[in-house]
Each structure stands twice: as C-alpha cells, then as structure tokens.
Amino acid sequence: MLGAAPAVSNLPLNMNPKKILVVDDNAIILRTLSMKLKSSGYEVLTATDGAQAVSTVRREKPDLILLDISFPPDVAHGGGVAWDGFLIMSWLKRMEEAQGIPIIIITGGEDARLKQRSLAAGAVDFFNKPIDNDHLIAAIQRQLGQEPTTPAA
Asked: Which of 107, 109, 149, 153 is least enclosed by beta carbons within 10 angstroms?
C-alpha cells in the first residue's frame, strides 16, 4: 500500500503530549494561552475558577498548572468563599492527585509581594500579564524537563 508511508511520516512528533491546566477567569487569556500551548505541542485543559481547577486536577492529573491569582467572587454559587490563586494552591497542595505538579503563577498584579508570596506558597515561577509567551514556554519546558525550543533570553 503506497499511500500509507506518507501518513506515518506526518504523525506529530509528540505522541504523548504533556497536559497543562490553565486556570484563569479571563476568557481571552484562556483562549490565547491555549492556542500558544497547543501550537507548542501541549494538551491544554482550562478552568475558570477554583472549583473547576480542583475537579480538573482530580480527573485529568495535569503535568503542570498555570494559575492566575485574582478571581471574582463566586456569586453564581451564593457568593461563598472567594477563591484566589493562593487558596487554590493551598487546596491543590493537600490533594494526593496534585502532588508534584509544578504551578506557575500568571497574574496581572505587579506587586513584588505577590511574587514573594506565590513562591513561598509553592509556585515554581511567576509571570506578570501581559505574558511573554516565549519566556513562559521556556519556563514550562524547564519544569517538565524538556529540551528548550524557544529562546530563553
């Protein structure tokens, strides 16, 4: 069968892509990061709040989590506990399914104390929005033990 060989050579190089969970309440951030990560060969999972993030981690066991710090109050569910990235990290650190999953913070907050607090809470890296995608991909590759494919200037 002559037509089969080209189909095999067109298979993606990464047959078992790493899963990255992006947790952010901003649909534009979710969409743009998802496109960039997918084009870099990753499987992308998304969550818009802490409850979705926790259930997605339990169900999918991602290889890495990109996590925003600021989330609006959960008025849809009676305005209960206000999730923020620190509370989400705290929950994840106590979950067996999340043990060893690196968390990179992505936030619009520029306060240096946010970076210190994030790293002290267990984040492995910290990025301010707007995110430099090349540096973010390089940081993800470092955390996942992959060869860098983008400049890490």
From this structure: 153
